[in-house]
From TrEMBL:
Region feature (Disordered): 339-371
Family membership: Belongs to the SAT4 family.
Membrane-spanning intervals of the chain: 6-27, 39-56, 93-117, 129-152, 197-219, 226-247, 267-291
First-listed, main subcellular location of the protein, grouped into a coarse class: membrane
Keyword tags: Membrane, Transmembrane, Transmembrane helix
Name used for this protein in its record: Rhodopsin domain-containing protein
Residues in Rhodopsin domain copies: 76-293
Membrane topology: Multi-pass membrane protein
Superkingdom of origin organism: Eukaryota
Location(s) in or outside the cell: Membrane
PANTHER family attached to this UniProt entry: INTEGRAL MEMBRANE PROTEIN-RELATED, PTH11-LIKE INTEGRAL MEMBRANE PROTEIN (AFU_ORTHOLOGUE AFUA_5G11245)
This protein's GO CC annotations: membrane
Pfam families found in the cross-reference section: Fung_rhodopsin
Length: 371
């Protein structure tokens, strides 16, 4: 990709991601909640992840401007291009970008876990234990990943050396393989837990995509709600696909340890693509608030347009979950308090004796019947 095209695409993506992230945090700030610590953890993780993303975008844009300002001939070979553009400064920034990439991925996972912990009091014991297991798995994979990247090349300054002793984890296939494996494995674990909030799963091992089919098949959804459910699930699995594509780019680029300018730029670009898709997957479901205010919607997947406070499920794209063998609708004590206050303020109904009655002003939610 030409440097000017890279700059335009990266800046547009960075602006879009900043807007989506700011909107997501704004929506979260205007919600009643019981566990403020979980909310602050979510907000901190998402904000730090955005900073990591912007840093890698900045490295890609800076390197593209650098290539333009050097006025290098268009027919220059990759070896000559690398000799002119790859120096210790670029290697240090590239090394920091690899660390930021790891932090970004696991900060986003941490933001999801913070949301799950906020509503964990409504989980059955089996789901709560699974949440603990997923949390430990995410933490362990993060620690192993970071230690491996810092200890791969010793002494440490070899990561930005330009001599024959140069060694950097960013182009090492074993490190990229482990990062991709841990990233995809933790995403699958998180998506499986996300599915557990819909329906109690048997202990039989099933395919990941089959889980989502079971979920959609278990809900009584109309056409619009079915589309919303499939969309929410699809953007979650897009992050797994993006991670696999990035690993494919890293493998084809560095299988011969060819850390050329073109290969490093390709890796930077596809890293930003993956990170952008992850941010979109996290923030885009919040945009349903605009659709509800414009058109109005209700149901298991969405929030009620008649009530400004969102259901627990809406926090993570779910409106209901199953507990035990019966179907229940997830409702928080906060929602019930606000519902009661709303009814007492707006009640104008009259009984036969002339007294006010506020009964049955709140329409029942949709029930989910297990098959």
């Amino acid at each position: 990709m030409e440097p000017k095209t890279t700059i335009g695409v990266e800046l547009f993506g960075a602006l879009s991601i900043m807007i989506l992230t700011a909107f997501r945090i704004y929506i979260q700030r205007n919600r009643p909640r019981r566990k403020m610590g979980c909310f602050y953890a979510y907000e901190t993780c998402l904000s730090l992840a955005l900073l990591c993303n912007l840093y890698i975008t900045g490295v890609d844009v800076w390197s593209s401007f650098r290539q333009l300002n050097r006025n290098l001939p268009a027919n220059m070979s990759q070896k000559e291009l690398s000799q002119n553009l790859i120096d210790s400064t670029f290697m240090k920034m590239f090394f920091a970008g690899g660390i930021c990439y790891t932090w970004f991925l696991w900060l986003v996972k941490g933001s999801f876990i913070a949301v799950y912990f906020e509503i964990s009091t409504h989980f059955v014991k089996r789901v709560r234990y699974m949440l603990y297991g997923v949390t430990v798995f995410v933490i362990v994979t993060f620690v192993v990943n970071i230690l491996m990247k810092f200890l791969w090349c010793m002494p440490f300054n070899r990561n930005w050396s330009l001599g024959p002793d140069r060694c950097t984890f960013t182009v090492a296939l074993p490190v990229n393989t482990c990062t991709a494996f841990f990233n995809i494995a933790t995403d699958i674990a998180r998506n499986l837990f996300h599915t557990m909030l819909f329906v109690e799963l048997s202990l039989t091992v099933r395919l990941v995509m089959a889980f989502f089919v079971v979920v959609v098949n278990s809900l009584q959804l109309d056409h619009r709600e079915l589309i919303a459910a499939v969309f929410v699930g699809a953007i979650g699995f897009c992050t797994i696909i993006a991670a696999a594509v990035r690993y494919g780019v890293a493998y084809t680029s560095f299988k011969d340890s060819d850390a050329s300018w073109r290969n490093t730029k390709r890796l930077l670009f596809w890293t930003n693509v993956e990170m952008g898709l992850v941010i979109v997957a996290v923030t885009l479901p919040a945009c349903r608030v605009i659709l509800r205010r414009t058109h109005g919607s209700s149901g298991a997947i969405g929030y009620s347009s008649e009530f400004p406070n969102k259901s627990l499920g809406g926090e993570i794209g779910l409106g209901t979950m199953l507990s035990g063998r019966g179907a229940i609708t997830v409702t928080t004590q906060i929602e019930m308090k606000h519902t009661a206050a709303s009814q007492s303020d707006s009640c104008d109904g009259k009984d036969k004796d002339g007294s006010e009655s506020c009964e049955n002003l709140w329409p029942p939610g949709k029930a989910i019947r297990p098959r």
